[in-house]
Write a structure and sequence with these properties.
Elements: E1 19-23, H1 26-32, E2 42-43, H2 44-50, E3 60-65, E4 68-74, H3 79-89, E5 98-101, E6 104-107, E7 111-122, E8 142-149, H4 153-160, H5 171-180, E9 184-186, E10 189-193, H6 196-214, E11 226-233, H7 243-253, E12 255-259, H8 262-274, E13 279-291, H9 301-324, H10 330-340
Parallel strand pairs: 1-4, 1-7, 7-13, 8-11, 11-12
Antiparallel strand pairs: 2-3, 3-4, 5-6, 7-12, 8-10, 8-13, 9-10
């Protein structure tokens, strides 16, 4: 449309690029666009308001990072919200794997979706305990998901078609569908292994970004460590009251974090893959506290915000690196390959004046 002619979507006729980052808070979306290439960012809600259009209720922004087209959007809080918003954003009539921008065309092998958010870390008792599992997770760490353990009630409802929470007569039907999506069942839990290369790329770039930031940070203000561990999602924020259940997941299923949305995002990716529309999902979460202990610790927000910002920069770097193999313009591809080797110096511009929201989903 005429409105999108003012954005990076003009050559794709309003279709979104296949490289995206989603998060729970619209304020974080607005902060993330400040990391885009100068002059490339557009918050679509604001653009639509300016042109007397309907901005909707969800914040969506587009722009480029080192020339790579990226969409950033808000999935809000909880599985049911993520179910609606992520499904609609990655739909074939909204997002394309063949995206044109200027003289360059991107032919992606998949739609890449990274959730950046916050989580509670999960440990197996203290170091020295017979139940201890390394590595120990601390506040200000960042965990990249290697696998997803379990599904949410929203997922079960979507797969079963049942509106009765107490009706489990459809369990066999749900289990069969999950297996078709690539889930394995271990100790009664459905487990989905995420794309290992994608997760490793994400971890690599976040680690590099956090290490660069730590060089100029005083002791006591250092960012933590990046880990690659499993995730479990919960429908109730207060389900953490039963600590033993979480401790068992760390001990038996290598689960290092717990949050509320990624089970649904991973399941949506699995469903799209089953239908032949390749979607790769990943997650990076700032640890705000740990189980057992205080899952909502009293934190220095300037530190947790910078961990989140590092996760966002690392996500953008990972998407940029992935996109290089998808570019048709060879000369520009070589130019952008050189940009990958450039240090994550955007951190030097600091934490967007404190606007990187720490505790939000």
């Amino acid at each position: 449309s005429k409105v999108f002619s003012e954005t990076i979507l003009r050559d794709s006729k309003g279709m979104l690029p296949p490289y995206c980052i989603c998060m729970g808070d619209n304020r974080r979306v607005r902060a993330t666009v400040k990391l885009f290439d100068k002059g490339s960012a557009t918050i679509l809600n604001d653009l639509l308001l300016k042109n007397d259009g309907n901005p909707g209720r969800v914040c969506v922004a587009v722009g480029t990072y080192k020339g790579t087209p990226v969409v950033v959007f808000e999935h809000q809080m909880g599985g049911p919200a993520a179910e609606i918003l992520v499904r609609e954003m990655i739909a074939d009539d909204i997002m394309t794997k063949e995206f044109s921008h200027g003289n360059t065309k991107f032919k992606s092998d998949a739609k890449y979706v990274i959730r950046v958010g916050s989580a509670a870390g999960i440990n197996c008792r203290d170091a020295g305990s017979k139940d201890f599992r390394a590595p120990e997770i601390h506040a200000y760490d960042c965990v990249v998901a290697s696998h997803q353990v379990g599904i949410s009630c929203a997922d079960y409802s979507a797969l079963s078609g049942s509106v009765n929470t107490f009706d489990r007569s459809t369990k066999g039907k749900v289990e069969e569908q999950l297996k078709k999506m690539g889930y394995e069942f271990k100790n009664g839990w459905p487990v989905l292994r995420l794309d290992e290369k994608f997760s490793q790329q994400l971890k690599k770039h976040i680690k590099s970004t956090m290490e660069t930031e730590n060089k100029d940070r005083a002791e006591g203000k250092k960012l933590g460590t990046v880990h690659l561990l499993g995730n479990v999602s919960k429908d109730s924020l207060y389900a953490e009251n039963v600590e033993e259940d979480f401790i068992a997941l760390r001990r038996d299923a290598d689960v290092g974090i717990s949050e509320m949305e990624f089970a649904t995002i991973a399941r949506l990716g699995g469903h799209k893959n089953m239908l032949g529309d390749n979607v790769k999902t990943a997650m990076a979460a700032c640890v705000l506290g740990t189980i057992p202990g205080d899952s909502f610790a009293d934190l220095d927000k300037s530190v947790s915000n910078m961990v989140t910002k590092s996760a966002l920069i690392g996500s953008l770097e990972a998407l940029h690196e992935i996109s290089l193999a998808h570019r048709e313009n060879g000369s520009q591809k070589r130019k952008m390959m050189a940009a990958v080797c450039e240090p994550e110096k955007r951190l030097a511009k600091a934490a967007v004046n404190g606007s990187m929201i720490g505790p939000a989903a």
